[in-house]
């Protein structure tokens, strides 16, 4: 069935949905190679969400073909805008901290003008989240905003009659941004790319576009990539809704993909994880905290053997770290290992400890991939490890207050959505393992952990 997908007609739109470990990234690359080898030698673009996965894909095979480009979305977008002379050399893109500052300024302005309006007294986080929603769906007018169905956002209580106030803050944010001669932010760059492409009568650079990890792309990102595809070419979208960890309220179904061309192909066979890890991942997805989606693919595994995942309890953080370091020492020269952390501060913590004992791990980030076929140890956040695989996976600090992240939960617009998104991080981490899955915590176990699952063993550490 996978071979059929690779050789689909080189025209029209195709959607491929697959569970973790079903070979989506491999399919994306082989589809790309198939297309580059066509007699006309067409130009093919493979786009993914982060740079680490780009490097991983480039290293998977000999892909030094002149008519094949592999890059992340924002590199594509900036390159296109730069080609038009519309990407400033410096400071053209608003960073998240500055975006929050501008939105705060806009709020203060309207709070002074309309002190009686309670909407403007709501937390800035709600406005940041809503403006991101407006941008990712390409909404440009109040009329569009009033008409749009707010996909998956019922948990955020914004009455339709109050949308005009949110849109006013959005417009003021845009005015403040333009004052600083900053043309874009990371959420609306895709809209500007799309608009430019609508007016660009030049021949498209790419005949075929393939999107990997597409569940993390906003609707405007996908629309812009479709617009960047030769009208006689093909657009292929690969994704897994269970791993939506960047903006999980957005759906590929709102992105202009014509599923009538080549249909939707679904792959449920997991070639990466042993059956017991695949079963444990199902238990994570069956949690009451998980926000379910009709496009969810339930995995079946063809890898029968493997040890049960293990959850180890420790009384202190120090004991937990000591145990993980001992395990890394025992495995660093015989297998590929990764420690998956909730944030960069924890990554840095483990890096320092490992370095002190003469082990120099690779830190996976937006510029550095990790490779499951290389013996050693990598450190990664949950977000950066997407699409990668290792023989042994260690997930520390599954403690209440750390996972879910206490600060994010406290400032959340919707706690329900935050808990679901955090749970998906655990799903992503668990499904990186080709053999061993070692999870640990100190003091209180996270409410998100599927304690009732029969597909893991629990143990007490060296306390």
UniProtKB/TrEMBL annotation:
Q: Which GO BP annotation is one of this protein's?
A: recombinational repair
Q: Which residues bind ATP?
A: 18-25
Q: Does the keyword Oxidoreductase apply?
A: no
In terms of Pfam families, this protein maps to:
UvrD-helicase, UvrD_C
- Which InterPro entries does the protein's record reference? DNA_helicase_UvrD-like_C, DNA_helicase_UvrD/REP, P-loop_NTPase, UvrD-like_ATP-bd
Can you say what this protein is called? DNA 3'-5' helicase
Any one GO molecular-function label of the UniProt entry: 3'-5' DNA helicase activity
Catalytic activity, as annotated: Couples ATP hydrolysis with the unwinding of duplex DNA by translocating in the 3'-5' direction; ATP + H2O = ADP + phosphate + H(+)
Lineage of this protein's species? Bacteria, Bacillati, Bacillota, Clostridia, Lachnospirales
Q: Which domain of life is it from?
A: Bacteria
- EC number(s)? 5.6.2.4
Residue ranges annotated for the UvrD-like helicase ATP-binding domain, each copy included: 1-337
Q: What keywords appear on the UniProt entry? A: ATP-binding, Helicase, Hydrolase, Isomerase, Nucleotide-binding
């Amino acid at each position: 069935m996978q071979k059929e997908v690779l050789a689909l007609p080189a025209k029209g739109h195709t959607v491929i949905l697959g569970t973790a470990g079903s070979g989506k990234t491999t399919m994306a690359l082989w589809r790309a190679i198939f297309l580059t080898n066509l007699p006309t030698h067409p130009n093919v673009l493979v786009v993914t969400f982060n740079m680490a996965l780009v490097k991983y894909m480039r290293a998977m095979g000999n892909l030094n073909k002149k008519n094949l480009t592999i890059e992340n979305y924002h590199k594509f977008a900036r390159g296109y805008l730069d080609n038009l002379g519309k990407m400033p050399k410096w400071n053209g893109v608003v960073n998240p901290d500055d975006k929050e500052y501008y939105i705060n300024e806009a709020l203060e302005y309207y709070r002074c003008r309309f002190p009686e309006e309670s909407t403007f007294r709501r937390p800035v986080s709600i406005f940041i989240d809503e403006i991101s929603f407006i941008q990712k769906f390409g909404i440009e007018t109040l009329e569009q905003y009033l008409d749009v169905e707010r996909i998956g956002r019922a948990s955020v209580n914004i009455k339709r009659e109050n949308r005009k106030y949110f849109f006013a803050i959005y417009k003021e944010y845009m005015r403040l941004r333009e004052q600083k001669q900053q043309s874009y932010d990371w959420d609306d760059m895709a809209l500007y790319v799309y608009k430019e492409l609508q007016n660009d009568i030049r021949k498209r650079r790419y005949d075929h576009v393939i999107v990997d990890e597409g569940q993390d792309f906003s609707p405007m990102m996908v629309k812009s990539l479709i617009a960047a595809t030769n009208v006689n070419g093909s657009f292929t979208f690969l994704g897994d809704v269970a791993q939506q960890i960047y903006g999980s309220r957005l759906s590929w179904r709102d992105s202009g993909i014509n599923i009538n061309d080549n249909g939707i192909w679904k792959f449920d066979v997991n070639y990466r994880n042993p059956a017991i890890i695949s079963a444990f991942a199902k238990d994570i997805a069956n949690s009451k905290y998980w926000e379910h989606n009709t496009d969810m693919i339930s995995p079946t595994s063809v890898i029968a053997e493997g040890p049960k995942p293990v959850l180890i309890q420790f009384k202190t953080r120090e004991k937990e770290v000591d145990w993980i370091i001992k395990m890394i020492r025992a495995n660093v020269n015989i297998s590929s290992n990764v420690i998956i952390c909730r944030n960069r501060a924890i990554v840095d913590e483990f890096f320092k400890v490992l370095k002190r004992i003469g082990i120099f791990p690779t830190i996976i980030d937006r510029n550095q991939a990790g490779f499951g076929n290389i013996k050693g140890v990598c450190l990664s956040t949950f977000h950066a490890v997407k699409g990668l695989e290792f023989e042994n996976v260690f997930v520390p600090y599954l403690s209440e207050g750390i996972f879910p992240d206490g600060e994010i939960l406290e400032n959340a617009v919707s706690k329900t959505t935050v808990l679901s998104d955090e749970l998906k991080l655990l799903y992503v981490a668990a499904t990186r393992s080709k053999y061993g899955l070692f999870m640990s915590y100190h003091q209180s176990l996270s409410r998100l952990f599927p304690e009732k699952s029969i597909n893991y063993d629990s143990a007490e550490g060296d306390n």
